[in-house]
Each structure stands twice: as structure tokens, then as C-alpha cells.
Amino acid sequence: MQSIGTKSACGTRMKNYRRISAGLAMFTVVGSVLSSLLIIEIALRFLPVCSSMQKLPVDQHNPILRFPSNQRFTYAKGWNFEILNYGRFNNYGFVNNQDYQSNPEDLLLAVIGDSYVEALMVPYEQSLQGRLAELYKGKGKVYSFGISGSQLAQYVAMAEYVWREFHPQGLVFVIIGNDFDESLVQVRSGLHLFKRHSQDQSLSLIRTDYQPTVLETILKHSAVVRYLWSTVGVGDLTRLPQWFTRSEVLYVGNTSRDASLERVRDSRLVVDSFFSELSRRVELEPARIQFVVDGMRPQLYSPEDLLKAQGSYFDLIRQYFIETAILKGYEVIDLQSPFIARHDKDGARFEFPTDGHWNGLGHQVAADAVSASNLAKMVSTYPGPTAQTIR
């Protein structure tokens, strides 16, 4: 018969054995997971996964959100890389094949917008600004300033920056459905917003600073993270139903169709503040500033769907924006009509099957409209020091 001490020692050894076994099992599992991730990480580095798209810090020294300068990038969308594009961030940190020069004597047209102008998913040559630059090649310059997530408040700040840095003879803004109410909401750090004053409900333009965190920087260097987050888009899956299930009832023009009184009222206040700030910060006459307003896609492809979209948020606020701009002397290009005309002709669509941004054809329709506009004619006859013309 074993003594009590012997039994106690055996029990202790068994407990230690179980702990060691559990530890080894955990180590094996963790090691297997890490090994698998390492293998996947290495494999993905041989595939066209999205580049990190890390932005520069935003502060008083660099007030405009942009990318590090002089870098190549890869853009991919979809688990199978359905949308794939390559491009570069130029010397000013914007997506453009040209390097920019700050020369007051240059004949310059500047294009400002959000991801539609950033156009990561479209070859530069097929983009609005790329097509215009080719059209004006040797006669004038077309620079673009687009950053994803931008909205009317950010457009004002970008326009002021562009005016002070480059002194363009004309400005073109691309306006889409979520540019209005998102001017009041911090979608991401580094963008300008309109801040409401509680006393009189007026709005003022503010800058939100941005400093990349250590964790953010580390994660963006991981091909696995970039594949899941940027290429597959796990952080944006809630927006897919509007393109896969044709949920036109919920979305019109890439934004919710909800036209509550509060939302429409706030957005009209944003529009009024935008025009007020723009005229104060940019010393161009209104006739030299143009707004290219997106159509109500995908509803414009069907007369029945377009009829149902009447009274939606984007329908109401785009009408208010267009009417206000025209009353103030600005030129407006409403892409709804040319989009419908082209679609009726050959059934063409102007966005990707799995992405609501303009495809190359959408950019072409916009470029054709801008090149035939009054602004293009005015800029082409600008009596500047270069004495060059755009034809």
C-alpha cells in the first residue's frame, strides 16, 4: 500500500504532466496558426494585393490629406482580383502620372474630388483628368486632387490649398451623393469638416488632424491584412447589398435614400456653407468654377426605377445644390442626361459590376462633357503669360 506522501507526489506529477501537455498543445496550435499565416503572407506577396495606401500625417504643417510622394501602388478589389490597376503617387502625393509644378505662368485646370477623382481603380489614361490632360497636352495642364472619403468641407480646404499653391485658371469639382451630410461626420481622421455652432446652428470649417498609429503602420505592411481589408473589403461588406441585390429602395446615388427633414435641412446648410466658404477662400470668379454632378445611378438605367427615385435624399439635395450653384453664377454639368443618353444608345453602364465608382466609360462621359463646357472655352482663352491655348 502506497503511503500518503507517495500518493501526493504522484498527484503532483500528474498535474504537472497535464499542464505541460496543455502547454505543448497550445504551443502546437499557436505555432500551426502562425506557420499557416506566414505561408499565406508569403504567398500573397506574390499576388497583386492592394498596396498599404498609408497617408501622410495631417497637421498645421501638412493640412491636406495625401499620400507619400513618388511611390508606385497596386489597387485590387475582390477576392479574385476582379478589379486590378497599377498607378503612382506623384511628387505631391496625389494619384497622377504627372509631377506637379507650382508655376503661376502655367495654364492650369484643376480637378478636385473624392475617390472618384482619386480613381485608384481606373488606369490614369482612362480617368477624367487623364483624358483631359491628354486632350490639352502641350497646350495646358490638368492636375487632379482626389482623396477617398472627401466631401464638400474637404473640397473647400483642397480648393484653397490648390489656389494658393498652383493658381489655376479653372476649377472642376466632382460631386457625388454622399458629399453632403458626410461633411458633418468624421468618416476618417485627416479630413476637414463643417462644425455646427450650438448658439445659432451656423457651420464653420475645421481640420481634423491625423497621425498614423504604430499598430496601423505595422498592420498595413501585412499582405494578409491588406488582402482581407482592402482587396476583399471585409470592412465594407455592409454596402454590397445595394449592388448585388438591387436594393434601390434603400440606396440612390451611392447613399441612403432616406430624405428625413433633419437630414435634408442639415445638408442644405452644408451646401450654403460650402458656397460661402469657397467664395471667401478661392479668388476665382464663379464662371471659372465648374461642378460635375453624378447621376442617380443605378436608377437612371430604368425609367421606372428613376421615377421611384424621385423624392429620395440624393434627388432632393442634388437639385438644391445645382439650383444654388447656377444662381451664384457657377457652371454645372449634370451627368444624368448624358448617362441616360449613352445607356439608351447601347445599354452601357458607368460603374463596375461590384463597385459603384465610375468605370473608364463613366470617366469618358464626364471628360467629354467638361471638354465641351463653357469653362473649357474660358480657360483656353485665358490671357495669361504663356499665351497658350487649349483647343
From TrEMBL:
GO terms for molecular function: hydrolase activity, acting on ester bonds. Keywords: Membrane, Transmembrane, Transmembrane helix. The chain crosses the membrane at residues 21-47. It comes from the Bacteria. This is AlgX/AlgJ SGNH hydrolase-like domain-containing protein.
